[in-house]
Specification:
Layout lengths: L7 E5 L7 H7 L4 E4 L7 E3 L2 E4 L13 H10 L3 H5 L6 E5 L4 H11 L2 H4 L5 H15 L8 H6 L2 H4 L1 H9 L6 H19 L13 E5 L5 E4 L6 H7 L4 E8 L5 E7 L10 H10 L9 E3 L3 E4 L9 H18 L2
Helix pairs in contact: 2-4, 2-6, 4-10, 9-10, 12-13
Length: about 325
């Protein structure tokens, strides 16, 4: 495949857009955002934001790639917009699985517009949707993910994530998206390889109140391993940053439990404990949240543990 895209122009930002007004002020008309704004998903005029993080009910909101798939397949978004603007500007700031898959759907929209698309592409979009909506903590058969090439397709992202995201890595982000798209083509054409799951997350703390704190050691497959082990509520230490700060994710496995592991209350308590008071560090949705990927958290995992136990024990008392 060529190194560049033809129908989309990937624009990698160093900071996310603050809201819709910021997005529409800074980006030209006929622009698409992929998980790049701290605001709700949707479309306004000739601007679209595919996301499922801020201001949503997580379990009722499709992944960014599935949103793009529906917009292309049912709404013929790219077919219409390319008559007005070619290439279409696509803004992102990272290259996770959902972003890479959404970029493929937008660039190769003709696959979906002329037909339903290949069964393998449908399968990977649907499987990604389940995993991503659940913040990676979705119970799957790990051998099936390997056998069906899911892990191989997204291995460039896994390799990138092991190094962490830094300011000035826009070219790395673009290259990762291109590599994943090339592998998606190989999958469709029957040339896919396999990539075994080698993640070994370290359980740092196991609470008697049904949550764990785990160190992912940079491998996004860690959450799939934890889910396969039966863990449903997770505080994940994603990485330790060179400046001494940390990146965390908080995942609640299901909204249909006893409502003890309450993500909104957890992030409010963690936010209150941060050293930076004039910036929002913790945020997210009802099932998946975390610390700011740019600034990071000042809190050591033992501090996070103590705060989480306090909030969870209070919820236990309230729920009898």
């Amino acid at each position: 495949m060529a190194d560049r895209f033809e129908n989309i122009a990937i624009q990698v930002l160093e900071k996310r857009f603050e809201n819709w007004a910021h997005f529409m002020r800074e980006a030209p008309e006929y622009s698409i955002g992929l998980e790049v704004m701290d605001d709700v998903p949707g479309h306004r005029g000739h601007y679209v934001h595919f996301d499922h993080h801020a201001g949503v009910v997580r379990e009722a909101t499709m992944s960014a790639a599935m949103q793009a798939y529906i917009a292309v397949r049912q709404g013929r978004l790219m077919e219409r917009w390319l008559r007005k603007q070619k290439p279409v500007n696509v803004y992102t700031w990272n290259a996770d699985q959902d972003v890479c898959l959404a970029a493929f759907v937008l660039e190769y929209h003709n696959m979906l517009e002329r037909a339903e698309g290949t069964p393998l592409l449908r399968w990977i979009v649907q499987y990604n949707n389940k995993i991503d909506v659940c913040g990676g903590l979705y119970p799957v058969n790990l051998d099936e993910l390997v056998k069906n090439h899911f892990t191989w397709v997204f291995d460039p992202y896994r390799q990138q994530r092991m190094h962490g995201k830094m300011i000035g890595d826009a070219e790395l982000v673009r290259h990762t998206i291109r590599e994943v798209c090339d592998r998606l083509f190989d999958l469709i054409e029957g040339r896919a390889g396999v990539a075994p799951i080698v993640a070994k997350p370290e359980i740092l703390y196991e609470s008697p109140n049904n949550f764990v704190i785990a160190d992912e050691h940079g491998d996004p497959h860690s959450r799939l391993v934890l889910a396969a082990q039966g863990h449903t509520n997770l505080i994940s230490l994603v990485c330790r940053r060179p400046n001494g700060r940390y990146t965390y994710s908080i995942i609640r496995g299901s909204p249909y439990d006893e409502d003890i592991f309450q993500v909104p209350r957890l992030i409010e308590a963690l936010q209150a404990a941060e050293d930076v008071k004039d910036k929002r560090i913790w945020g997210g949705s009802n099932l998946a949240a975390g610390s700011d990927s740019e600034l990071g958290s000042s809190l050591h995992w033992t501090v996070v543990r103590d705060i989480a136990e306090r909030i969870v024990q209070q919820a236990c008392r309230e729920n009898g």
